[in-house]
Description:
The complex is a heterodimer.
Chain A: H1 2-19, E1 21-24, E2 35-39, H2 45-52, E3 62-67, H3 68-71, H4 75-85, E4 88-90, H5 103-110, E5 114-117, H6 135-142, E6 148-154, H7 156-159, E7 172-176, H8 186-203
Parallel strand pairs in A: 1-7, 2-5, 2-6, 3-4, 3-5
Antiparallel strand pairs in A: 6-7
Helix pairs in contact in A: 1-2, 6-8
Chain B: H1 8-34, H2 41-62, H3 65-86, H4 94-113, H5 116-138, H6 144-170, H7 183-206, H8 221-242, H9 247-275, H10 290-312
Amino acid sequence: MLRGLFYLLLVKPLVLFLIGLNVRGRQYLPSSGPAIVVANHNSHLDTLVLMSLFPRALIADVHPVAAADYFFRHRCLKWFALNIIGIVPIDRKPPTRDGDTLAPLLEALDRGKILLLFPEGSRGAPEQRAKFKSGVAHLLSKRPEVPVTPIFFSGLGKCLPKGEFVLVPFFVDVFVAPTMAWNGSRSGFMAELEQTFRVLQDSAKPLQLEDEA
Amino acid sequence: MIPVDLPVNVQVAFACIALLLSIASGISIMLQRRRPERDYGELRQRVKTWWVIVLVFAVAVLINRTTSVIVLGLISFLAFKEYLSLIPTRRTDHRVLFWAYLAIPLQYYWVWAGWYGLFIIFIPVYVFLWLPMRMILIGETQGFLRAIGTLHWGLMICVFSLSHMAFMLVLPAENNPGGGAMGLLIYLVFLTEINDVAQYVWGKSLGKRKIVPKVSPNKTFAGFLGGVLSTAVLAVPLALWLTPFTVYEALGAGLMIGVAGFVGDVTISALKRDLGVKDSGTLLPGHGGILDRLDSLTYTAPLFFHYAYFLHY
């Protein structure tokens, strides 16, 4: 309920009017769960823009995966992250590498949820993409039938870079790539994912000049 | 919602625009039916978007002063956002850009209040002096001149120039018995857009010699002259109906809109060519970005405003 209102009254107007999206490949977005959406991360706005791409009816099933150490710093933020944004918390520095970190994500997928994942692990420098961490491959090796949709953002790091709290409006490009499937190997899958993002990143460069009509 | 005392001429003007667009829609549908082998999707999309533009313009003009100022202010905001998204900006200027955006509600507030003195100097003087100072507080000198120059040019084009459209609506209605408060703006926007279309049509049908080959290779002398003359001819009967102009004043207004519209058009073309993009954005399907549609108005709005202001207000 609160989440629905947040989506309608804040996310949609903020993203559509204040920011303004130019989405290419919208037809590739998953229309039902379980599914994983993988995006590059430059700004807190990334999550809101990803949420805005889904229709209102689906929003209850869409959950961003977010760092517990960051979002559980104090009580209010924790409440907001869990109840309004609807995050699935993940431990970025697990004490042991026994795979328990992924348990909440696997459980969410089993309940038919759409998970939003930022494999860079952190927002990093504005408009720079860091190397992906392999968590998504681990996740997929356990649920190989779940489809993965890569999304590349360009411009959100200009609107609200890490460390800023003043939002400056810019039009933002969103490139959605066709769904990827598990290819049997973790390193192979990560290589394929990196390659897909390189292609999306190249298509984000300004369209070549033609003589206008 | 629409005031009952809307001048008859304004009602007729909108009826005529709707009729023109219906004809355009009819032609585009017919062309596609006649020649199914060719793709008229772009043309169809363009005409459809025209309907949306006219609808927004009607809302901007017909309801009341507050609505007009808000809608036109939002158009300035979209244009300025598109401009800033196109040009290279420095990351250090994040807060400066925020201040630049703040100039938009303020500028449109002066319009709403009818405060001509501040409206006319706010951006060219106060904003012009304030933004570089704010940059200097941050202290990055690398690329300073380019950053402040591009920012100010954008504010002048997207906010200062375009806000003249809104100020036309707050000029005293009694000076314009035929068209009332909104007559001047309808006249300006209609002639500017018709001029764009006329220049295109004349250029396509008999244009040969290129007029600005380096900036806009498809623009020709024939297109320019044909467009300006068509606009001037149309300006006279429309003026008697929507403005306080005499016949000669209307002829002058038409020539000015024709020439200034062309210059505005190629100025935005030069900007796009410099940045290596074809369209300024994707907001208006079939047209490109919002600046692609407002390009001519960035020149015609302030020039026509001061022409009319000098003569009749």
